[in-house]
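Co-fold these.
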Amino acid sequence: MSTPATIRGAGSSIGSLSQRTGCNIETIRYYERIGLMPEPRRTAGGHRSYGKSHERRLGFIRRCRELGFSIEEIRVLLGLVDGGDYTCGEVKAVADRHLDDVRRKIADLKKLERTLKDVGAACDGGQVPECPIIDALYPNTG
Amino acid sequence: MSTPATIRGAGSSIGSLSQRTGCNIETIRYYERIGLMPEPRRTAGGHRSYGKSHERRLGFIRRCRELGFSIEEIRVLLGLVDGGDYTCGEVKAVADRHLDDVRRKIADLKKLERTLKDVGAACDGGQVPECPIIDALYPNTG
DNA sequence: TATGAAACCTGTAGTAACTACAGGATCAAG
DNA sequence: CTTGATCCTGTAGTTACTACAGGTTTCATA
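Predicted complex below.
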């Protein structure tokens, strides 16, 4: 009458939290070690026991990571949330700074893509030795 | 009548190689340690002494890194060059694989950019607590 | 030739964000 | 009570460098 890991609010094991969130076990322990996740209660034998709030928080962290926020950015975000008195402006500042980062990365990669395409275009991929790509990769060959 | 570091083909110091290539000293030593750069000759006192071929090779490595090739990809490329019997096709294969990687990264970042923009749009950045960005970052808040 | 600062040497440890063990304890089912 | 799955801690590995500490060499100047 219940999922194996959640028997009447007794809390769930790290394994089942891992399965539900898609975050692997070592990573959950890692987040605890670096202080993103709070220390959970333990069973008599010392096994970690998680509740709903842990799952929510871990979900938040994972979502942020998917969106490319760094651990330190997430720490700031969580600090605001934990403090409880954050404003929209504070949160938006973090998000906007991050958006700028992402846009810069896109621009860099696009430049890179063009160069790689150009470099590759010079080469027909044949059996001939002395590939023009190699030459192109030597800066100002003289 | 000569640059301080290059006295009559005697080879240049790691410091001047660093300056000419823009690659910092620790990194040059690191490339040597991992086998990308060959061990250079040494002075009587044990200081590294580089020639033109080292500068060319280091230039190649740096250029590849700028283009986002990983150290292992560069190792493959250099292996082909060092072997001397590479074909255009082999080189192009490495470059094309890398170009695919870059394009995948661009696509991912663009998706991310859209999401961050959407998330940010919900927020007016005001003084109000309870920012909608935070809510958006909790996955399926129920 | 002596001196002293700048550059160099080796080896180790730190960075980001995890992942992967080793070696042992606990849990849940039968 | 046994057994196999899961969990525990602690340490080391990953990528591509960077940053020391503590000591030696070089080289321009006095």
